[in-house]
Amino acid sequence: MKRFSENNSNPRCSKRRSNVDNSREQNGDGLGSTFFPTDIPMSYKCSEIIKSPLDGKRYLAVEFDNGLQCVLISTYPCNNDIDYCLPLEPTTCSFQEVYEFNKCFLQMYNDQGHDKDPDEMSLLGKIAAYTSKNSVDTIPETKLEEKELWEPPRKKSFIKCPVVANSYEPFAISIAIAVGCLNDPDNISGIAHLLEHVVFLGTQGCPEPWTILSNNTISANAATEMDHTIFHAAMNTSTEFVKVMELFSEMVACPKLSQEHVENEVHNIDCENTIKLSRDFLRVGALFLLCSRSDHRMRRFGMGDRISLGRCDITQLVRKHFHRYYRPNYMTLCIQAPLPMEDLIRLSAQHFQKLEYMDQPKPWEEIVNEGFPFDQKKFSRMYKVYPFKNVQWMIVSWAMSCLSWQNYETKPLEYAAMLLSHKGKSGLDFYLKSKGWITCSATSFSSECQEQDAYFLSNKYYSGIHLGLELTNEGVLQETEIIKAIFSYIALLRQVGPKRRIFNELRTAKANRYHYRTCMDKSVIDIGIAACRPRSPKLILTGPELLTTYDPDAIRDVLDSLLPRETNVITVSRMFKNIVTTIDPVSLVTYGSHPFCPDLLDELESIKPFREFTIPDSNPYVCNNICRPVDFDIGGMTVETSLSYLRLSGKAGLKHQHTSSKRGLADYSVYTFEFTSPYCRANPHNCAMICLWKKMLKEKILTRIHPAVLADVTFSIFDGESGLLLSLDGPSVFLPTVWLDVLDEFMNFENYLEEKTFLTFKELHLKIFQNANLRYDTLGYAEDLVLYLTTYQYILMSVLENYLRYYVTFDEFLQFTRNYKSRMWICSELLGTITYSELGLLAGSLTRLEYDALPEGDICVNHVQQLPIGEKCLSVKAMSKACITSTTWNYYQLGQLTEDMEDMLPILAKHISNFLFNQLRSNSRVAPVTKLRTKEQLSYFVKVESDISFTVSSISVIVIMQADRFKPGYVDERIDNSLVSFYNEHMKTEEKVRNLFQLASNSTEAGSIVKEFLADSKFIKKLRYLYKKCLPHKILKVCKRPSYRKLTVQVQGNPRFEGSIPLEPVYRCPKRKVYETPQTQINPDCIQRAQGKIILEIPDDLVHENAYFITSLDKFKQSLKMYPNDSDYKE
Questions:
Q1: Best exposed site among 81, 120, 139, 710 by fewest CB in 10 Å?
Q2: What's the mean pLDDT in 304-321?
Q3: How far apart are CA 105 and CA 510, in angstroms?
Q4: The model's pTM
Q5: Residue 1054 falls within a domain, yes or no?
Q6: Which of 189, 228, 225, 474 lies closest to 314, judged by CA?
């Protein structure tokens, strides 16, 4: 690491900077020399960071004298063109420098020999292996000393690749502080989380930082984790970048931390906790932490609520926590910008070198010194959990000491997790599915009901592997058999031992993904967090991503640690309702537990591998030569003939946008195929069938193409309005072969489907439809009702649940899939590097399909329902007593707008969102101050989104609040008043509109649109008229008669605490309304039963139909008409 001390700038650097500054000023960037003072004394150490040779960005690790660690990323576009004359390595077709990187740093290509038996190793070899393992396993208390690491050669012929960065986020900053929830005081949970919130609310020099962040960033947010807190933002221009950088330095140096801010944010954190309390995966995570020792920090409640933080001295405690931990020697600054590296160093020094160093024990040492966090007696048990939603999971976990297993070179945990989650036909996943015990593998703590794999966790305090399974009803009953199968597969892995071939495949797949994808997409958030980890600064990029050294002893030790007596099993199901009795008062998880039966433990320890289990075969998709040696642009007659046939037959359409391959680089493509059929989502029968088919088809396809998935191919399937949409994304050389497998599974789906599998997935989908009406925060219920009332063909989830339960049989399902594929139209779109030979293969695969062409006129088209003029309210009760939040969803229908108005709608919605979230002011003509979050603390969740569905535009304002504090109707009134305040402050005059959108004109994402808009006075007038016409202004009375179309859906939750008195709305006198007699429609019994579950909330004194409340859901929808085709906007 080199040492630098500067008191004056380098004249050569200053000259180059002045040239750059002039060019920026000419381009309107606004970055002048004042941003780079040349008289800043700097003293720092720096070192280069190892990166991929294909990464065009420059990285530098810098440490200032105050202990601040910086990761600087320069995307300065200077000499970043690819030199295509550089030599290629003949065996891999990659650039010579990439080959050298893989060979020297990753040790690829030179260890392809046979696996060695440890008993056959020489004594010297065993000692060398043991020494190597221990040199990377142990994490010392001080910083890691730099090892002799291979570094890419720096020479003139080195590859200079173009910077491929997110075009919408050219400037970015993150500050990671190595303090998190585990550093909270013993008796005050949530201090770190509260401090993260309050830091954003004001500094000594900037009382309202959200004003700067809202006007100068694409995105800005923060998060508090167990061991770190991170603040991050992304900007478009250098001017915004400097402003935000200065603000962030003040936020971590001198936040205001006023008593008002602290007390207000306690309510906000309590609301956030209430919303998250009903998320089952968070409850399971909380139960897992309850297995830790009673005297260990891991057991603390990191989120916080008004009980844990509602102390009279909370402000003083927050300030004390800030002064103890927010120090530069605990921080990592990460910035990315298209500026020279010298400028990034000076900017960092200018804003962050002033922070004061404190010589105190490091935050992570406080936890590491407490030892292994888990109590083995509490951990090694079988837990049963009664969930909030109807989900059925099993999470099997093993926890180990991080001092033994945190090996960044071999990553033995990742090796073991990959094998446990392998979806091949001889693996654990396939065996459990064939028995009908599981439907998919699921990550235990990341998301609900999503297909993911086993994963490994490694931090400063412990390491572990978690295997999550989504169970069927039979699987819950066969809990013991599933555990036996898991340990039988582990017995096979121990028996076979580490395999060099498997390690090499994993290393090669990760290397290919890193060189050709990850190194281009790495965000400053990920890099900043990675820099907090105890590793050499040179390995910040490669350490988390790549495998370098094959160490069979390290892998064997991990496999040997997966012992039955050190296993934690958590099973989640509603079948345990009458079994579990314990309720954790903080997380509200309801659970019970018992130790493993001694006989079961003995059986598991002596279990043999099942004959169905073998290790995965060689993966043909993982290879070193995924690059093309030359450009491929050669065509032939085959593709032309196939395309002509497709056009003439009317059976399919094939569009392609070819990008020429580049020698030495991997090519990537995206294939999208939409299978349109008359059997779409137009009725409950088709909709239920398609939803079920999509889930089953996805599992079958992923199982078949799993080797390709391990080689960076992704597969997605969606059920659109007019049919199924299948998508493939990955290396171009693999996709044609993978597509043929996908197409075969699609066309021959019912030939291999068993009734047992059908019933398993039907059971799963019944739970999915039911859970949509039991959303933890009532948000899903509100969204379901909004879509039903505003979309012509939308089917309520409760209707689909009843239809699937009573009307869908195995034979009917098979007949539906056959009918669907008998009459179709296939729309194909291919993007990326598509050679003519590949295009011919794809076109030929479609040509050989046997089905009848679907005329364009038979394609079912959906429509938006036109709301009546004025306002309608649908108020309902939550369908579960456990829902402790309420939701207000205000839908403002704007109609069919002109194209330029549609372009401006998302920009307008963003400004409204910023205003509603934090920046509202009081107004004498409306209600008192209505800051939805910062002042009244109405909610942690305030969202504004624009939408264009079937040519109809709308804006929605969505708020989730605590049922204890506010009624949904009260929040509805606050939203309307806030929209009026927004009009008064920003839309009342043409000058105010120009001021509002002036900052957006610098955006690279929408700058040209805004600039064109600001130059047109008529357009501004139209926008103001649209806002007045289509959003409610009852108070301002700007219109002689109502012209807006608004629907408010209000879902009322249940108060968590007895005696709560939530604030009520003040309804204005509703006018009477008489509905026109609708046409009689016959609904199936299932629809009538489903709608009978919806409980309307109507005032007791309302005995007649009126202009505000909807008293009959079905009757109201039948009174609506489909939206007109002509433009709804007239000035």
A1: 120
A2: 91
A3: 14
A4: 0.86
A5: yes
A6: 189
